[in-house]
Amino acid sequence: MSSEERTPVAFSVAKADDPHMQPKAQNPKLAETLIGLVMLAGIGSLIGFAVAYGMNAQSWIMGGTLGAGVLFLGFGITAWGKYLMPQGPFVEERHTMRGTDDERERFKAAVVQRGGGILGRRKLLAMIAGAGMSAFAVVLIIPVFRSFGPLPGNTLNQTNWKQGTMLVDSTGRPIRVNDIAVGGVVTVYPKGLENTDTGQAVDQTILIRVGTEAVVTQQGRESWGPNGYVAYSKLCTHLGCPVGLYEQQLELLVCPCHQSMFTVTNGAEPIFGPAPRPLPQLPLFVGSDGLLRAQGGYDQAVGPGFWNRETSG
Amino acid sequence: MAEKTKQQAKSSFGPVGKALDELDDRLGIAKGGRSLLDKIFPDHWSFMLGEVALYSFLILLGTGIFLTLFYVPSSTVVVYHGSYLPLVGQKVSQAYATSIDLTFSVRCGLLMRQMHHWACDIFLAAMVVHMARVFFTGAFRKPRELNYVLGSTLLILGIVEGFLGYSLPDDLVSGTGIRIAFSIIESIPVIGSYIAFFVFGGNYPGPQIIPRFFIIHVLLIPLIMLGMVTAHLFLLVHQKHTQFPGKGRTETNVVGTAMFPVFAAKATGFLFMVGGVITLLAGFAQINPIWQFGPYDASKISYAVQPDWYMGWLDGALRIWPAWEWTGFGYTWPLEIFIPGVVVPGLIFAVVQGWPVLERRYTKDNEIHNLLDLPRNRPKRTAAGAAVFALVTMMFIASSTDVIANYFHITLEAVLWSMRILVVVVPIITYFLTHKICQELQASQGAGKRKRANVVTRTPDGEYLSAPAEPRPGDEHVDLEPEPVPDFLEDPVVVRERKELLSPVSFTGVRNVVR
Amino acid sequence: MMTRPSLLRRLVLPGIVLVVTILSALVVFAGGSSPTTSSSSSVLISSTVATANRQQRNYVAPPAAYQTGAPNSGAANSSKRVFVNGHLVAYGNKYIKYVAPPAALKSFGEALYMQNCASCHGVAANGVAANGSPDNYPNLRGLGAATIDFWIETGRMPAADPTSVQAPSRIAKLTHGQAIAITSWVDSLAPATPFIPIVNTKTSNVSNGFSLFALNCAACHTITGGGDELAKGTYAPTLRLVQPTQIAEAIRTGPGNMPRFTGNLSDKQVHDIVGYVSNYIEHPRNVGGIGFGGLGPVAEGFITLGIAAVLLLLIAFWIGERT
Hints:
Shape of chain A: flat
Shape of chain B: globular
Mean pLDDT of chain B: 89
Number of helices of chain A: 5
Largest interface: A-B, 109 and 143 residues
Radius of gyration of chain A: 37 Å
Mean pLDDT of chain A: 90
Strand content of chain A: 5-15%
Oligomer: heterotrimer
Number of helices of chain B: 18
Helix content of chain B: 55-70%
Structural class of chain A: alpha+beta
Number of strands of chain A: 12
Order of helices and strands of chain A: EHHEHHEEHEEEEEEEE
Distance between the termini of chain A: 68 Å
């Protein structure tokens, strides 16, 4: 710590009745008794904790006894310090932080004259050494970061939905065209991927039956909604939360995270909230076996926005 | 005080004194030790807020070590077999399974988990309140700018550490937060997807994020924070604490209580009390019931999900920022994520960190300041701080739009639009209101202070004289002139018997002896 | 000489403030924030069709209000079917039994209907008002017995405020027997499935139910079942006070804005979900202490900033000096 020189020429002695040495309590004996009792209660509570632990008591009993014990002990020690120890106030002088002018001169000389002199005399060497340090720093960063993960490439623009991919629910069961009543909603995945990370995180799709006739959500999507079914990416275009909340009378998908609202019959256009783009739609068709399949991938990249996001295909 | 005229030939401090001599032979503690023990700490109550942060940090370390001995940071899928029926047979990650085991199968495990989480919430609350105290009293001024920067960096690290920590159990609620974090990183223009893939080891979710979060949470950040806290405390001791202006206090002294024993007693006692409060909370108030949330699945979601309170302001900003995404030059600029998620917090942190420099530029004040300001005496700084605080608070309230709508039966749309307006209007009003209040307080005499009555006496000639009353019982020390810590104490019993010899005694409670 | 107020007086006021704060926090959070309550009785009149013949050839089932071709999904194409006098009176399996309301209660139900429902839904239960013009109120024909029973037994109907965006669940004005009677009459006008489900929650796999709940229900009702506000003034109600039959009815019929789950959830899956909700949503295992209504980090933030921080500040205020 600070290296003050204390020249002990004369010691100071405090008289026993110095008001600074007196406790703050008006009745120190009473205070001592009370504090002692509180601390004893604390010890008792701690013993209670030990017993509670031994009996594998419920968490609140263990927490209550341990907490009360520690709290009472703490109160006791604090009250002792506050009411029974010398009340002060005491003072000490601050030592000036700064050195004397002489010391400063010599310090600055050491740094600037010695250091500057060395570097100034060998300018070229200094520049090369400096370049070397920078190169070291840069080169060190490259493997540190690059080894962490793969380059994104085009991964974020792709899903596993292809032409003819079968829609299955979370148990792997395919969806028949007559299975879902009007107003029903299912979370679907590409067949085989319902239990995988990528299937759940990227390919998750929400399938909604809004009616019994074909649903046309946008121009050019006449065949995308057979038999009243529409399918949208379940990844919210705001921050990627699953948009699992469907209100069937309002025909509205609501994202539970930040309450973006998407109109289901209008291509999942966002009408409220922070989501900037509609949910990409998955074109469907009904196979000859009556099972719902995808005509191909989504109309655009799924999920939140990012720099090189593809807006078509 | 009596001066000691001759040194004592032989020390008579008993076995403790002998042990101290031995230590001094080896470590040289006598030279600096005395001044350390005599160090004065001003004891205003608002100087104890940093202590709350320090003690909760210590509790975090202790409970955290306990948790690391049971928790397994792995995304490997296992089938849960334990005592909580709704999870038995479900495929969960090992991280989740071991967190549930900590809750139900490890004795005291749930208490430790809850102590850890409550201590984290309180740690951040204490840092915020402590930083507010430092800001509003101007304690960040020269020579303490570096300490202030250390402290605000600790706050930022604490927020990150808390987020990483509550994401470790891999439950449905915190997993949603990780997805949002991925999207925020992804939204950085040009390099966002690269950074996201590097951090996550691939596309979301990736099996590496839980182990990486774990090592950052239990090793990297705690090490950095420990180092910073040590530096923070060292600077505090080296530069000595600031103090409010008052009786006997100048720019070149410190008035208060000595480190040993009074401050040590109060500090230890406070450590126990903070620990006690945290433990009581952990016993009676349930926090983060991960067994009710279930394991994380990227296609599952719960409504009414908010992050922990210290991240709430970020979530609120993301909710209320309008959907202004821009597509230009063939690229997507996700401004509706990037601005509220990265730019706004970056700006706020930059202003907070850079405030000492900004204020020095603005006031052109390069003096050393060891005496604090009363907030009312610096109305512009106080009002600016209050306005920024109001802004962050409104963003924080905006993160619970759905809870507000549900509780007060207002539509979501109404709440959201109200928050969008309030987040702009309230800070502006706060600035002017605070400024006015400061000026009013300055104008009134002794506002907010304990009044000392005047005792009026009437002389027989009919003259009225007034004098300040005696201090209240228990406050007499306020009137005392501060004096330096004495080297030795008179033992009253010994003095009564042997008036010549002065012998030091150990420093316990000195009785009020009438001589 | 000024005397300090006694120790008692100095502690009384702060103590009262502290106690009041803690109590109000408890009331706000432990009492739950949902505005809805529901306590319909749970005894369903047992089916009187135990003596009927099991299977009948050339039988045409009543139309399903909510079409599904998937077997064992709430429609009459379930494994076991029970007929009386050529009428289907029950179907289902060991997980859920769907029972038609007893025909004997029809006339009693008609009287009750005219008294309680006709003013809005019309004397012919087709949503036409007395003056002949179609009104806003839904046509009740052909919706299936489960639908009618659900709305009455949860107390949503008769609606306290017919103009509100969404009828809240309340303490049912009509008793369970009265509800069945009205259901019986309304269903008789245009008989349709699904019938009233009776769920065998004893065999529920609560683990499977939890997983399905998280995927299908938590997005609206929250993972702890507390409910929350949705779009345009609608809301997902709390699940903490609902009877098993009504849970199954809601799942199968999708009342109001709730989607209906038919072919995508089999009877076994629905009975698992109902078992989970009845046992764990309605009786949450709050082993960590007070549950604060399952509100999550919002409540925890309140406690941290409103109680813990204040308490620690008060302690610091006590320990330190005021000058």
